[in-house]
Amino acid sequence: MVDQMDETRTGEQRTDAPAQDTAKVRIRRVAGVDPIMAFSYTPFRTPEMDSQPHSNAMRDFHPDPNQDVFEVSADIAMAAVMTGGFEVDPSSRVKLNFPAPFASPRDTFIEPDPDAKEGGE
Amino acid sequence: MPAPTAFKWAISFGKETTFGVAETLAGLTNWFPVKSADITDIQTNFETDADEITGYRGETFHQVFERKGTVSRTAKASLELLTWCIEMSLGNHVDSGTTPNYTSTVKWPTSCITNPPSFTYLEAEDCPGSTNTWFSYKGAVLESFSVEFNGKGPGAITMTIKNDGSETAQPGAVLPATPYAATRLYGYQVNTKLGPAGTEDISSIMRSWKLTVSMGSVEPPSMTAGVFVAEQQYGLKNPKIDVELAVKADKGHAVYGYYNPVDQTTVTTVKHIATISVNSNRQIVLTNSQAKAVVQIKPSGSEFQGTVKVMEEHQATDAGPGVFVCKTGVTAWLAATP
């Protein structure tokens, strides 16, 4: 299986790679902040966007006002956190690459290998 | 008999899920009265044999190969219609709030974006037996809009709309019975700050204020099947914002000094903050955190007036040349429909 996270880190583009937005991130509303009713996001590029006219527009996410937790694609999650009204649920297994000023180390989550020993083999 | 006085048009506050795929007719419920019954003009590009020698002195056929539509609308300024214009032009927003007060913060589309949002609208003469005048138009983009206030009176909105060239008869449409309950906007509600600190209130010397946003839309040469427009793109280095205001000022005024300070070699960087406020929960605030003011002083009646053009400068603070904060009673904008 293609290591999607490695591709993200090296910035390589492959049209046959799984779309980045297939990764799901759990986000939740930040308590005490005016509830976000809608926000736009810049979709991650996909082969579909390259092959369809007018597919590269801002897209919208309208979170259900009656829900606090959502499982969304990474592009939506990134925009959600930047609104200030959402945070990534700690139980979510994906970290995001945020642009400045929300920059975090430019890495992505790599699930720790429980069998790995400190210092390597 | 055609009756322009019976003209209605209707939009939703949403957008098309896919360009050229019409929004649901039932969602087109918002009718904002217009000043002139301008109806959509469908333009047709024909291929002919005018450039071939055929034995005749003129064309022998006309073949349709492309259609596109345009229309201009003029309306009195209202909070909701102006917000719709802003949303539809820029398409990048965050909406928040609780009943009945909502805030939509609208910024420039990111540099990775090519296409503007699109919408569907309805046009009709609402007369008995006139259902054959009811048409819907899809694949529409708001090419440009302007809003202008002169003195204390009502503001005016002008919109230029382009659609994909299709025209769909809608004899079964349900037309709005009453106009949208819009919050009208007046010149006396406009407060303007212009200066290096952004706190310099020039409202007391304001004569007029005009905002124009245009997307410089481009229809790329398309070879997709069918004769209708398949794609609208933002023009390169677009959308653009132009703010022009007139103030009572001569060359001794600080406003002129921003344009041509004593050293005459620089132009002062200014902030422009325009607030159109009905109350704290119903208002639109435009903030240009960084701009240059180009000022021309001319006599006007018994005073000198400065015509100030606020030149946009894109910057990180606004993630573009400016930010709109629109406070309305509308829950959320640009919901993708159907």
Topology at a glance:
The complex is a heterodimer of chains A (121) and B (338).
Chain A: H1 4-10, E1 24-29, E2 36-41, H2 47-51, E3 59-61, E4 69-73, H3 74-83, E5 86-88
Chain B: E1 7-10, E2 15-16, E3 41-48, E4 62-76, H1 79-90, E5 92-98, E6 101-107, E7 119-125, E8 135-150, E9 156-163, E10 168-169, E11 190-195, E12 206-214, E13 240-248, H2 254-259, E14 269-279, E15 282-300, E16 303-312, E17 323-328, E18 336-337
Parallel strand pairs in B: 2-18
Antiparallel strand pairs in B: 1-7, 3-4, 4-9, 5-6, 6-17, 7-8, 8-9, 8-10, 8-12, 11-14, 12-13, 13-16, 14-15, 15-16, 15-17
List keywords for this structure.
heterodimer, A: 121 residues, alpha+beta, three-stranded antiparallel sheet, two-stranded antiparallel ribbon, 3 helices, 18% helix, disordered N terminus, B: 338 residues, mainly beta, 16-stranded antiparallel sheet, two-stranded parallel sheet, 2 helices, globular
Please explain how this structure is put together.
The complex is a heterodimer of chains A (121) and B (338). Chain A has 121 residues and is α+β, with helices and mostly antiparallel strands. Chain A has a domain of 80 residues. Chain A is built from 3 helices and 5 strands, in the order H-E-E-H-E-E-H-E. In chain B, strand 5 and strand 6 form a beta hairpin. Chain B has 2 helices and 18 strands. With 338 residues, chain B is mostly beta strands. Chains A and B meet through strand 2 of A and strand 5 of B.
